[in-house]
Amino acid sequence: MSRIAVVPGSFDPVTLGHLDVIERAAKTFDEVHVVVVHNPGKTALLPIAQRVSLIEQAVADARLAGTIRVTSWSMGLLVDYCTEVGASVIVKGIRSQVDVAYETPMAIVNRDLAAVETIFMLPNPAHAYVSSSLVRQVAALGGDVAPYVPRSVSDFLQAPRE
Ligand code: PNS
Question: How much is the average pLDDT of 149-153?
Fold first, then answer.
């Protein structure tokens, strides 16, 4: 039976840290589903469909090995998506103790709800300080986000707007 892992998140926008975790998950599992989910606790910059498209481009550009599907989920609990596609594992990246504190309650709730286990992966330390919120801030103030995000994202954020 093929082992499917779900890598969920807001991905607003996807960063090099996210991409690093997606790549590690793809090396570890038969199939990886990158799932964009609206987080009501965060003010969104990009529409969900745009986030999906930027991740798709980034995954294609990085030529990652393995089977990676990029999608979104707005039909309720993340574990409902996991059950629907037969995924028993969620993969999350951990940069620091702050992330451990943020992720642990979600991991336990997801396990209680549907016996879906969460595996924490450590990204390359080079990405330890990269976050979508910092990227949003730098982009909004006209800074260069290229060191922190895939090419698809920096091109999109830095394209001139009408
Ligand atoms: O990148 P984020 O914002 O930290 O990702 C958080 C996210 C979207 C994965 C989380 O909020 C989530 O899973 N939301 C879906 C709703 C849900 O299942 N909630 C209960 C368990 S946390």
Answer: 97
Can you tell me whether residue 151 is helix, strand or coil? helix
Output the pTM of the full model: 0.96
List, for residues 66-84, the tens digit of each pLDDT value: 899 999 999 999 999 999 9
Q: Kindly state the tokens that stand for 158.
A: 């830095």
Contact 131, 148 (CB under 8 A): no
* CB of 13 shorter than 6 A to ligand 1: no
CB half-sphere exposure, 150, CA atoms < 13 A:
25
pLDDT at residue 69 in the model: 97
Nearest to 52 by CA among 31, 30, 67, 74: 74
Each domain of the chain, given as residue ranges in start order, spans 4-149
**Taking the chain, what is the end-to-end CA distance rounded to the nearest angstrom?**
50
What CATH code would you report for 4-149?
Answer: 3.40.50.620
Confidence of residue 89 (pLDDT cuts 50, 70, 90): very high
Quick check: CB of 8 below 6 Å from ligand 1?
A: yes
Mutate to test the pocket of ligand 1, among 82, 98, 103, 106 (most ligand atoms within 8 A of CB): 106
